[in-house]
Amino acid sequence: MGIEPYFKFVVGYEDTNKSKHTGLPFLLALEMLKKECPDIASSEILMVGDSIEKDIVPAKELGLKTALAKYGRKTPEVGFADYQLLDFKEIIDIVESCK
Hints:
Strands 1-2-3 form a three-stranded parallel beta sheet, with helices on both faces. The chain is α/β, with parallel strands linked by helices. The chain has helices at about 15, 25-35, 50-60, 90-95, and strands spanning about 45-50, 65-70, 85. β1, α3 and β2 form a beta-alpha-beta unit. The protein has a single domain (about 10-95), classed as HAD superfamily/HAD-like (Rossmann fold, 3-Layer(aba) Sandwich).
């Protein structure tokens, strides 16, 4: 899909043994990213997820930009993200618009 250049690393459950809603995986990702890019601001980081509660809320609490993957949702949730994605490929448009 040609998106590999946009990612420095991936953090999974096994990296913290905590679910995303705790915020710990996001904190680890921020720590790793700031080692690579020490001057990056939290507002320059995009978290893409399909759950308001598990993905969007904890990311927003850390000051990250958020994109809700509506294509991955089975039931509606209350809340909002900075961006709404109807197709995975829209991530590239968002990243390109932020350059």
